[in-house]
Amino acid sequence: MHTPVTIIGAGLGGLTLARVLHIHGIPATVYEAESSPSARMQGGMLDIHDYNGQLALQAAGLMDEFHAIVLEGRQAMRVLDRDGTVLFDKADDGTGGRPEVQRGELRRILLDSLPAGTVRWGHKVASARTLGEGRHEVTFADGGTVATSLLVGADGAWSRIRPLLSTAIPEYTGTSCVETYLFDADTRHPAAAKAVGGGMLIAPAPGREIFAHRESGDTLHTYVGLAKPQDWFAAIDFTDAAAATARIAQEFDGWAPELTALITDGDTAPVLRPLYALPTGHRWDRVPGVTLTGDAAHLAGPNGEGANLAMLDGAELGKALAAHPDDIEAALTEYEQAMFPRSAEFATFEGAEVHGIDSDDDTARALFNTITGKG
């Protein structure tokens, strides 16, 4: 590869691409809007699957580092009815194929595997334009520019690189999550901690659900999903934590207290996370010298696959470039022809509706039957 690869975005996909390229001796520079690796929290738990995310880590030569950050026991899963009845309770026996790690730790091992200076922090992209003959120019918010013969947009849902390839814009899925944390859960929030168990809790109902993970350091991370229009959330003042928490909890009136405590007893202010998605099967015609990975290419509602697919995108693109060092277009064509159907296969929102839950009767049992193969 005679031209260094320019990657926009130091998320998991962009970093995996940079790492695989480094292994193959191909230089790359990653431009990231955040000012440093610790500029913000990197999210919660990720289950890294043996059929995609782990394959990416194998290609990156980081399986030992990955195993060192796995949180044992977190593949356990419980399904509870709204009255607290336990409908499904699966222990983590180590054979699930989806070990859990903290997103921040996964990003750290990827960053640590790259040569110093690979990531240029504090470079927020303002725009990108085509220069012709496969070259593109990226302009940063500070007025700086970089021109490149190979540009990769790994810059997430609101990608500034995507317009070079597609007019698609993410649309609201109709569901938002409200996120909160409970710290020192076993001692300070014992009922909620018992309900969650050792791994993940799911308590589903039509149009609403509570998910919670047991993370490292005795922390419970809660995601409350509500199928409401954005105007409904806009009417809630999330700068008033107590009022916002009370309004969200009101949607779960009558639920078991150990479940509603995951909302009302939060040790952090509730954070609203609207969920967006690109059109299912989003693709584009081949444009010389540029492509996309991860959410920039195939943003979908929560389905447990986003981070895994982003990493696999990065690994597969890196391998394609290494296999065609003198033919960028052949590499990009090979990558995209495999990526498009792969991402479309998983572009499904994994909410209650996916599990056949569309009425108030036996909602959690429907999910239980689906998980256990009885439905």
From TrEMBL:
<feature type="binding site">
    <location>
        <position position="295"/>
    </location>
    <ligand>
        <name>FAD</name>
    </ligand>
</feature>
<feature type="domain" description="FAD-binding">
    <location>
        <begin position="3"/>
        <end position="337"/>
    </location>
</feature>
<keyword id="KW-0503">Monooxygenase</keyword>
<dbReference type="GO" id="GO:0046677">
    <property type="term" value="P:response to antibiotic"/>
</dbReference>
<keyword id="KW-0274">FAD</keyword>
<keyword id="KW-0560">Oxidoreductase</keyword>
<feature type="binding site">
    <location>
        <position position="40"/>
    </location>
    <ligand>
        <name>NADPH</name>
    </ligand>
</feature>
<keyword id="KW-0547">Nucleotide-binding</keyword>
<dbReference type="GO" id="GO:0005737">
    <property type="term" value="C:cytoplasm"/>
</dbReference>
<comment type="similarity">
    <text>Belongs to the aromatic-ring hydroxylase family. TetX subfamily.</text>
</comment>
<dbReference type="GO" id="GO:0071949">
    <property type="term" value="F:FAD binding"/>
</dbReference>
<dbReference type="InterPro" id="IPR002938">
    <property type="entry name" value="FAD-bd"/>
</dbReference>
<comment type="function">
    <text>An FAD-requiring monooxygenase active on some tetracycline antibiotic derivatives, which leads to their inactivation. Hydroxylates carbon 11a of tetracycline and some analogs.</text>
</comment>
<dbReference type="GO" id="GO:0004497">
    <property type="term" value="F:monooxygenase activity"/>
</dbReference>
<feature type="binding site">
    <location>
        <position position="47"/>
    </location>
    <ligand>
        <name>FAD</name>
    </ligand>
</feature>
<dbReference type="Pfam" id="PF01494">
    <property type="entry name" value="FAD_binding_3"/>
</dbReference>
<dbReference type="InterPro" id="IPR043683">
    <property type="entry name" value="TetX_monooxygenase"/>
</dbReference>
<dbReference type="InterPro" id="IPR036188">
    <property type="entry name" value="FAD/NAD-bd_sf"/>
</dbReference>
<keyword id="KW-0285">Flavoprotein</keyword>
<protein>
    <recommendedName>
        <fullName>Flavin-dependent monooxygenase</fullName>
        <ecNumber>1.14.13.-</ecNumber>
    </recommendedName>
</protein>
<keyword id="KW-0963">Cytoplasm</keyword>
<keyword id="KW-0521">NADP</keyword>
<feature type="binding site">
    <location>
        <position position="103"/>
    </location>
    <ligand>
        <name>FAD</name>
    </ligand>
</feature>
<comment type="subunit">
    <text>Monomer.</text>
</comment>
